[in-house]
Each structure stands twice: as C-alpha cells, then as structure tokens.
Amino acid sequence: MEQTANHHAGKVISVIGPVVDIEFEGGHLPAIYNAVRVASEGGQGTTPIDVVLEVEQHLGENRVRTVAMEPTDGMQRGMTAIDLGEGITVPVGPETLGRVLNVLGRPWISPTCQ
To answer: Residue 48's domain spans which residues?
Structure first.
C-alpha cells in the first residue's frame, strides 16, 4: 500500500454486492463521504473495471466500508483503491441544463439512442 500523487492507496479486502471494505495503511483513513476509485486494466482473463465508491463508515483496524456507485462486477480482493481526497462532485450550471446525468456527473445515454 503506497501513496500516489498525494492520494493514499489501500487494498480491497471484501466485496459483497455494492458494499466494498478497504484497508489503508499507516493510520490514514479517508474521511466519511470521500470518493475512492478502484481501477484495473484487466489482463489474464479479468475484466477491466473503473469503479468509484463512497466511504460510509470507519470500521476500525484501518478499514473503511464503502458503497459502489457503479456495478462491482470483476472486482476482486487485493485490488488497489485510491482515496481521491474529496467527495463525489457533479457539475452544475448552464452547460448541464436539459441533460440527464448519473450520480457521478457523467451524461446518461439511453440505450435506445445509440
């Protein structure tokens, strides 16, 4: 577990549906409601994933419980999790008027429009 560009890294220790437990080292625990990203490029039969999670609870023993904002399909124990240092934010303003955004602020595209 290391620190990457001012962001602390941890390891996934449990995945149960959208609930993911993550362990951080060195006494660093992300604040409640901080965003955490788990990403993997795949390889050797694994699916590439890029999932954003939100910290909901400090469990003790340098562990946090998070809830995924996207499907956790393909997530495995031992994957690296990066604390993004801030909560999930969504853009607002004239450029977003009339658009449908998901919980992460990404434009939602209807499957019928593709």
So the answer is: 3-89
Indicate whether 65 belongs to any domain: yes
pTM of the model: 0.81
CB 38 within 8 A of CB 55: no
Distances (CA, A) of 101 to 17, 30, 52, 97, 105: 23, 26, 15, 10, 5
- Residue 25 belongs to domain with CATH number: 2.40.10.170
Distance CA 113, CA 27 (A): 47
For the chain, count helices (H), then strands (E).
Answer: 0, 7
Question: For 26-53, how does the pLDDT look when each residue is reduced to its tens digit (9 = 90+)?
Answer: 778 999 999 999 998 877 767 789 999 9
Establish if 96 belongs to a structural domain.
no
The DSSP symbol for 111 reads G
